[in-house]
Structures are given as structure tokens and as C-alpha cells.
Amino acid sequence: MEKIGLYGFGYLGKGRAYLEKLQQHATETVDEQALNQYVQQQIERGEVVYYGYQANGSLAYGPDFSPAKAQAKAVATGYTDHSGDKLLACTRRGPSGSWGEVFFTDHTFLFNTMRAYRMGFLSFRSYEEADAFISAIHQNLLPGEKWQFAKGEQNPALVRPKTRYEILESYLQMTFSKLVLEYQDPQSPNYQKIIFSKDGKYCYFNTGLLTNFAEDLYLIGEVYGKKPNGLFICNDPRMADGQRSLVTRYGFAKEAVQNGPGVATFFTRIQDIIYDPSVPIDFTAAKLQHIIVDGIERGRFPRHYTQQYQNGQIALWDLSQKLKAGIENARLIATRNYKYVVPQYRAATRQRPGAIQFLMPIYLDRMFDKQPDFALVLSYHDGYYVPETILLLAWAYQNARILCKPDDSWLNPSEIVDDVPEGAPSDESTAAPVTRHPAPAVNTASAPPQSPATAGPSAVASVVSRPAAGDSALTEGALAFPHRVWLRQLTIGNNASLRGLFDGDKVGTISRKKTGDCDLEPLLGQQMLVDIVARNPLGGTYQATPVRDGSNAFTLRPEHPNCAVKQPAGTPAHTPQAQAAPHQGSHTTTGTAPATAAPDLPAAVPAAATSPLEQLVQNLPQGITVQDLFSQLVQGMQASITPTSNPAETAPAAAPAPISAPPPPTAGPTSSPSIGDIVVLRDIKKGNNGGIRGVFGDGSATATISRSLLTHPKAYYYEKQQLPVRLLGVNPLGGGFRAEPAEQP
């Protein structure tokens, strides 16, 4: 029997309770038969109003709005409320796509409710206000951190677009949710970290972020709908002006805001956020089923594996073996780099509390010079790590950033494309399975065709085109591989790779495997002849292979100094079968290539050999510390620059025999910098122990500024990129100069 009226419009629950709900709003007695006849007539006339979200995040409604994309619909009941407004029967679409229970209200209330934008317990009147709020916060933050991903295709699974800085939005949402859930718990470290005004109308809390003046960033908002258990919504949050405004304008107690609320605490022991590679991972059949089968159906596996599985070309056993091999590779790397497996915070829900988990990068094909395929989520229980699910990198980064900013390793927001496939919701509790069909391909209309990933240097060398005199003018979408260009402005990228520019602003990357054991420092800022061999699947960059000469050395621009490739001790040289001819008029370097890595070891595992600095520290005489050695070296250099009247007064009491410092590097063929000179430092990057470093002169000389001598936040220097500095002396370890910021001479 066909359902008519409200029975065919949405879910009405048990019995005739819906009539009682309508009667609470209506000014006249509700008649069930008349109600459903009227509603049926409205439906047949096409008077149903659909509500949904446009691509810009704003709300749209009307009879012409697409019912398939609508998130709510409403139809007139024929009754009015006590204000004279028409009462509408409304229903909203649930996570599974079906229409939910019918409720009754007027158009104004429904429109305002739909138009509002929620970030957990933070609420805004509209998407536009939420986006403006997030943008204002971003503008006032301490610079130097990336708060948005590289943009891919719009995720069709999103009901509504995220705000402009989605990482920042996620951070604020989860941080405030943590505070709201725990501010009333005396046993929690977040107890009383939300402060309320005397009348309870406003709340005040610490975001845990720093402003561009390196001060705590506090927010204030209106308290709405506070429940007996303490949960509430913070409406219209904004940045707090100052304590006087909080006291005089919003009615906070002076003593309550004097020191400000503390930042949210997510863990109390440092051990809770450090992954232990010795702890076994407990796999069960149910977990493998969820991770592999459900992961494929939810679009979290690489597309080629998804298609092979759906076409019956790969078995579950094979996928399980690849997954376990990827886990073992990650464990091997984590034993050598404790930061490789990243902690994340799993937000609390109604069914479970929040928890610290770990994100393990999984490379199914061992292609460590690319982004991982996904992150495996691990929870610690009773002496075991339990695999929970797998996450795409965008979700993994957002969860990890709640605890701290991950190092720029495999979780790098500048290279993660926020391109989530359809049917892949981030919330496990609301995720709906997707029917088995090939995952939709990414729109690559503007992307050039990719060469096979297995093509090596020898294959490239035999088919490369003749290079032009300078950077080739390449047309996006028509870039043929391989293509020979000069890669300029070389810098160090992720995993000790090289990055540079070609054809305007295109970015080419050279993996550490392709540079071998070469010292990368002398290459910074230079130009290298390379073959562009493929487009990286994530980040919009291109893979490059260095063009080597007959002696297997890099080919650099003639005006740039050489960089010799260091041969590892005790390993035979490996010569490719085919060598590319050097570019006409180029300047080549000397040296031999390093041996290739053993095929059964992951390429990203660091070498076990100790550096000269580590050997020096290990061989210090008993009773002599690194600080003693460093002080002696510095004092010795200062004495050689400015002799003192009595050198014995400055010598350490129990110092070992003096160790001669390495000579300073030359600045180039035409200039020799001296101590006290003021030079212009450029290509400024992160140095060791919180300092910065850069090059000057013709690019062959380097200088470092220690963290204690920085007069501004590091991001200030990164933005300037050129900085007058005064040379203070020679670095006792590593070469180059020590420097301090100086005024322009």
C-alpha cells in the first residue's frame, strides 16, 4: 500500500505521537486525516522545499534545489503557530542517506538552524562567519606553520565544505571538545580550564596557540544550552581583547582571569606518546577484515589495489602479506627514528572516551620516496598494540596536530592533497559501506601522463630529448616524459631529498636514493641538469633524475662550484648500463656513485655508520664533556681573533689537549670573508637546535645563527629570506661561520 501524506514524507515514529508534537505548536485542533490530505496535495503540486549547501558552503533552498543533494526538506501542514507563521513538517537526511524523523517548526527557525555552522561544541550563525573566524585566527597566529592542505578535488562525501584552513578548524574543534568534556572533572588535568563570567553567559578558554607576538591566544564566546552534566555550546566565539575587557564588558571576575586558563592537556606521561617498536602488534581475523576489506570498500586503499581486488586480480592473502610487510618496514625504521610513528588523539564520542593512539605509515610497494599509502591506527592494550583502522593522510595529520605539530616527514601538509574519495567518511561510527565498483579516478585533465614507476636511469638515458639552452617552456597537460631541464634554486626537502624549480614555478624533486651519498649542502641554491620522469601522485610536483657525466658525477651550471659524490668506504662503485651525455657547455663534477642498497631492506632505513661528530663524542677522555670541548674550541678561536693580555686566565682548568678547528670555507673565487664582516645571508632555512642557516657570497659559504642570538621568531627570518649578518667566527664543528643578525651597513 502506498504511503500518503506525512507517512510517505519521512519517519513518524510509533503511533500517533507526531500529532501531539504538532499540536504543541498549532493554534487550532489538529485533524490527522485533514493534515495528511493537505500534505499529500502539497507534495503532488511540487510544493516541497528542499534545503542544501552550495559549493561555497552557503545554504540554498527552494523547489528547484536538487532533491538528491538536499540535506533537509519541508512541506506546509496547513496550520499556523501562535506567532501566525506557517507550520512546516520537516525532516533531515541521516548519515546513511535516508530521511529522518519528522519534526514541526517554521521556516525561519529551520533556515537559521540549517544555516548555522558547527565545529563540535563551537557554533556560528553561518558558514561565512565560521570561515571569517578561522581566517582571522590564522592571520593572528605565530607564522611558520601550515594550516591547510594542498587542494585536490572536492570530496563528494562532505555534506558541506570545510573552512579555508581545515587543519586549524579541526585543531580548535578537538581542543575545545576536550575542555568541555573534562572541565568539571576534578580528576582531570583539564579541570576548571574553562572560565565562566559571573552570570554564566560567557566562557573563556585557552586555544593552546600562540599569536604573532608569541602570546597565548584566548577565545571568548556565549554559553548556550548548558546541560546538568556541564556540556554546552559556545556560540559566536571570538578572540579575547584583554583582561580589562573581560572584567568590565563581559562580567568575569578579575581574579579568575588574572593568570588566564591553561592549555588543554591530552597526556600526562611522555611515554604515552612514544611508540615502542618492541611491543608486538596483535592481528586478528576480524581486524584484518576491517582494515583490508572495509578499507577497500571505504576508498582508503590505493586505487590500483582497489580495482585489482574488485576485479578478482589480487587475493586477500596477498594484500595481507603486503600490509604485514609494510608494518615490519615501518617498525624497522621506527627502531632508528622514534618520531617515525606519530601519536594522534582520538576524539571522545558518546560510546567511548578520548585516547592516545599511534599512526604508522604504510608503504605497500616500498616506494619510500613518495607519500605513504595510508596510516595504520594502533591502540595500546595490555602489552600489545591493537590495529584499529586505516586513515587517509589528511585525517591522520589533523588528528596528529591536536597533540603537536608533526615533523615534516611523511606527514607534511604541504604535500598531502586533501582529496578524499567518495564514500570515505572519517568517522568510523557513521561510515556506510560502499558497493564494490571501481573507485572514481582523480580528474587528471590538467596532469601530464606518467611514465611507469619502474623506469630507471638507464631507461631514461636512452630516450631523453636534447635540452634547450635554458629552462624549457613546458605546457601544463602536454609535458612529455622524460624531459630534460635545468632544476634551479635547489633546496633540501623531505627525507633528505632535493627540491628545485623549473619552467616557472613547477617543482621537481630528487629522492635521496637518486642523489646517493652526496653531501647536499654545496648543492643548495645551485642549478642541476635533470630528467623529469614522472608526476608525483600527491602534491603536484614532479620526479626528477640527475643527469650524470661519464664519471657518474652531477651536471651543474658552469658558474656554480662543484660537488663531489662521496663513495662509501668498503663498497664497490655501481655504474649504470647507459649514461646520459652531459649537457653542452655544462660543468661536471668528479666522483663515483654509491652502491645500490640491498634489495631486501627498505630504502628509508638510516645507515648504521656513525658520523665524525658522534665518533668524536664517543672518544672523549674520561671526565671531559661535550660542553667542555665546545667551550675550549670557542675560546681558542676567540683568542686567535682577538689575543688577550693573559691567555692563561681564560683557559679551562682541566681541559684536554687543544683540538684544532677546521679552516673556514672560502667564500668564492673573488672574495674571502673575514671575522667581523657584514654579509647578506640568503636562502634561510631551519638549522640545528632551533637556529637558522643560510648561504652568502656566491653560495659556497654558509653561516648559522644560534637560537640564543635570534631577535625575532624564526618565521620572521624565513619570510625575509635575506638578512644582513655579522660573522662572529668559524663553526667548531661542521664548517661554515657563526653569525648574528646585524643592521644593514
From TrEMBL:
Residues 144-410 form the DUF3825 domain. Residues 445-459, 567-599, 642-658 have a biased composition (Low complexity). Transmembrane segments: none annotated. InterPro entries: DUF3825. Pfam families: DUF3825. It comes from the Bacteria. Residues 414-459, 555-599, 642-674 are annotated as: Disordered. This is DUF3825 domain-containing protein. It comes from Neobittarella massiliensis. The lineage of its organism: Bacteria, Bacillati, Bacillota, Clostridia, Eubacteriales.
